Amino acid sequence: MKAYNRDVLKMLPDELESFVRDWAIAKTEYFRVEPFRGTADRGRDVVGFLTSELHEGEWDNYQCKQYGTTLPTGGVFHEIGKVLYYASLKEFTPPRRYLFVAPMGINRNLQKHFFKPTAFKAAFIAGWDDHCRKTIIEGGDIPLDGDLLDLVSAYDFSCIAHVGVEELLADPAAKPVLYKYFGADPGPAPGCGPPGPVQQAELPYISQLVDAYSERRGVAFADHAEVASDPAFAPHLARQRERFYDAEAFKRFYRDNTDPAVIETFENEIYHGVAEVCDEDHKDAYSRVNKVMVQAGSVMPSGVLAPHARVEAKQGVCHHLANEAQPRLIWRRP
Fold first, then answer.
1. Over the chain, what is the mean pLDDT?
2. Which end of the chain is less congested by CB atoms within 10 angstroms, N or C?
3. How many CA atoms lie less than 13 Å away from 103 in the CB half-sphere?
């Protein structure tokens, strides 16, 4: 997959904040993700709330810094001081994690601090007067004492870290965001075989197949278990289940790593690619299934899925269409 380092480095500050917000949302660990912008941000850019308690519970702070150079020590101390100061005023709890998203990186002094949390805290306390005391509030003077000193002393500075551009882009949660912003190709989807016994969720399309086998045999099969013991139809049923689950894995991967609309378009393209073949006159339902499978394998989808739509996934989508509450594909006709 193409490296998007330069694209991220060229983002404007507001664009980076939006990118990080979408990245935090894609992580799925948060109850809610909220951006804070403007003069009242209190040192917060993007916040990931862990629970419905919001700022009264655990939360992570993503501080976005799109600079033309590496992040300076004084600037980081100032941002940390701002958040901890307002936490000492009970405006919110101290963040569980404090992540500086700085694509251009951090200076060597900060690198040293981030790897030695105890020394980092000591340096922060020693540098309070220089970097925080008179800069947090314009015209104000905030000495490091009382509740504020207690909170700073108790805060775990190992929770503070830097996220560089390479680390950001390597996170699996960044894939859908890269697709949204740059049209990034998420790559091929993993395959997935059937889980063993037929699952409840499969019964609609399985029942359609059992009807097709019964029509071809001229004798009704009691259920899918009876088909599975039949030497003529058991291999066919096994292939259809493989295709169904391959399509399931395919859809899940691209739904997670692109946009749900991509999969909706893919399913619609498969449907329109096979609909006329499905509606043609066939010897029986079994023949209809097989002709549709052949046709599905030849459908060429558009967009980002074009190079990744393997035959099994395209065929499996047909069984998904037959598995819907109102099936778009029906094998046995009156």
1. 94
2. C
3. 19
